[in-house]
Design brief:
about 200 residues, mainly beta, seven-stranded parallel β-sheet
Length: about 200
């Protein structure tokens, strides 16, 4: 394991020797971080969470208790993964091949979930790979995501559907004329053809 002196790994955690931890990161009780996983600075991996082989987390990510982040997931900076979330990696899951022989790692091609900067995945949600979750999107607890999610989208349900828009604070945006406004930060957004952009970049 490659880790700076201020990284914290509790004794009951299982961190592979080839994993790389960023400064200030914490790996809590019974968590497992597999081979070649890369965690950025100030990441928190909660109790019993699983980080798969080669998974990449950007700076300031938080993976809550018992979440399962299967390879080859890629999380950008500031991503929140709630308790018991599952990021899948097998489009056609089977324990055995058609001839009855047990499947091995060579019998399938893993596909990943990509989560962009600042997005949040609520407790017990499932993201069915391959999907991409856009910047600062919010996935409600218990949702099942089967399609790509646009930036700033508020998604809920099984399968998940867009209910509205959220800003960087996670608060649902309010329509004001032809703009969307965050009631907390007062940031303004513009919607063009189903895509939401910050007003300054629209």
């Amino acid at each position: 394991m490659t880790a700076p002196s201020d990284a914290r790994v509790v004794d009951s955690a299982d961190v592979a020797e080839s994993a790389r931890l960023g400064a200030g990161s914490s790996i809590w009780h019974l968590a497992q971080v597999r081979e070649d996983a890369v965690l950025g600075r100030n990441c928190v991996i909660g109790r019993g969470a699983y980080i798969g082989t080669g998974v990449h987390l950007g700076d300031n990510c938080k993976v809550q208790n018992y979440a399962l982040v299967y390879e080859p997931a890629h999380l950008e900076a500031g991503v929140f993964i709630g308790p018991a979330v599952v990021l899948t990696n097998d489009t056609y899951p089977r324990a055995v091949n058609p001839d009855g022989s047990p499947k091995s790692a060579h019998d399938w091609q893993p596909v990943g979930v990509t989560i962009r900067e600042g997005a949040a995945i609520g407790a017990r949600a499932v993201c069915v790979a391959p999907v991409e979750i856009g910047r600062w999107a919010t996935i409600a607890a218990g949702s099942v995501v089967t399609k790509d999610v646009p930036a700033f989208a508020l998604m809920a349900g099984v399968p998940a559907r867009r209910l509205g828009w959220v800003g960087k604070a996670g608060v649902r945006l309010v329509a004001e004329g032809d703009r969307w406004v965050c009631p907390q930060t007062k940031e303004r957004y513009v919607e063009i053809d189903g895509v939401l952009r910050e007003e300054s970049s629209a």
